[in-house]
Amino acid sequence: MSSPVPGLPMVVPAQGLPARVRIHEVGARDGLQNEKSTVPTEVKAEFVRRLADAGLTTIEATSFVHPKWVPQLADAEQLFPLVADLPGVHLPVLVPNERGLDRALALGVRRIAVFASATESFAKANLNRTVDEALAMFAPVVEKARSHGLHVRGYLSMCFGDPWEGAVPVHQVVRVCKALMDMGCDELSLGDTIGVATPGHVQSLLAELNEEGVPTSALGVHFHDTYGQALANTLAALQHGVTTVDASAGGLGGCPYAKSATGNLATEDLVWMLQGLGIDTGVDLGRLTATSVWMAGQLGRPSPSRTVKALSHQE
Ligand code: HMG
Ligand code: MG
Fold it and tell me: Residue 3: what pLDDT?
């Protein structure tokens, strides 16, 4: 056991957890897509650069979606070139269709994410498509992206509950997961879009996916923190062998097309827990916290992250 250091947790490892976790930082995309005011492009670029400087190596930068659907990210063409040359950093972007992929390819994007839904209601609200129509929209995108050598992530939203439909039957999650894998996605991210999951639910879904032939090694987790369960759910996923965790600096976030979606798991809260467990992330917690305090200043309200509050004495 190491001695306490101000600003850092005591390191006390626990059994059955991975040695290293890859954080997929979504603050600049999931975090900002729901902001009421539009954040200036240069501030977004500075945010991404500071996240990279804090040691994050996968930073979802923006979305190449229809600008009328997500006006907050309508500056994707202007933003991406401002951050594209960050050394050693992957900058995935969301792409819903071939139009989005072509926009991304024109800028030299190397990683994309398509985003499916386990439920019909959210597929309609978010993509103006049925679940199957959305999958049909993604198939040529994934094929073309892979033919250009791009890494493709497949998001799957509403894996644990849906604000319109309630409980989501596991077979719906399994079906869409398998479709995304068969399409050629390199990794999947299981979204708890409205934050209703609890740890037992996480472990049982992961076990069922394994039984259906979806390996844990292909899965990341994406928890929103509506009910304060995101960190507990993450620990449950790590115990099951997951090593990719999505999080948003300062706990920013929400989905404009999902009722009651709040911010993501805060990256600082995640890093605090992982450091305490002796799990390597490569992230400098002090620099990351300073970034979220700076971003909170830009947005004009305090960060919802408990760790940011504790480390910065932010009111
Ligand atoms: P649609 O209205 O059905 O579009 O929207 P369409 O295919 O009928 O096309 C209509 C017009 O839009 C056409 O122009 C297209 O060219 C244009 P026109 O010919 O009429 O002049 N268009 C585009 N323009 C620029 N970029 C594009 C694009 N696509 C079409 N990419 C669409 C369908 C998919 C485009 C729309 O629904 C959309 O953009 N949705 C995005 C919604 C979104 O970004 N949601 C948030 C991200 S998902 C999320 O947050 C969940 C996640 O975090 C995980 C979790 O928490 O669960 C990932
Ligand atoms: Mg999300």
Answer: 47
CA 63 from chain center: how many Å?
12
Q: From the CA of 220, which ligand is nearest?
A: 1
Nearest ligand for residue 190 CA = 1
**118 contacts 172 by C-beta, under 8 angstroms:** yes
Query: CB burial class (10 A; 0-12, 13-18, 19+) of residue 167?
Result: exposed
- If you compute the radius of gyration of the chain from its CA atoms, what whole number of angstroms results? 18
Spacing, Cα 5 to ligand 2 middle (Å): 33
Q: Give the integer Cα–Cα distance in Å for 83 and 49.
A: 7
Residue with tokens 């911010």: 263
**What pTM was computed for the model?**
0.97
Question: Which positions ≥6 away from 139 have C-beta within 8 Å?
Answer: 183
Mutate to test the pocket of ligand 1, among 26, 30, 65, 73 (most ligand atoms within 8 A of CB): 65
Domains in the chain, please, with CATH? 22-312 (3.20.20.70)
Tens digit of each residue's pLDDT (9 = 90 or more) over 184-235:
999 999 999 999 999 999 999 999 999 999 999 999 999 999 999 999 999 9
90 three-class SS = strand
81: its two tokens = 């070139």
| Distances 291 to 6, 18, 89, 210, 230 between C-alpha atoms, Å | 18, 27, 17, 37, 21
Cα–Cα distance, 164 to 271 (Å, whole number): 33
Specify the residue with its C-alpha closest to ligand 1, atom 34. Answer: 127
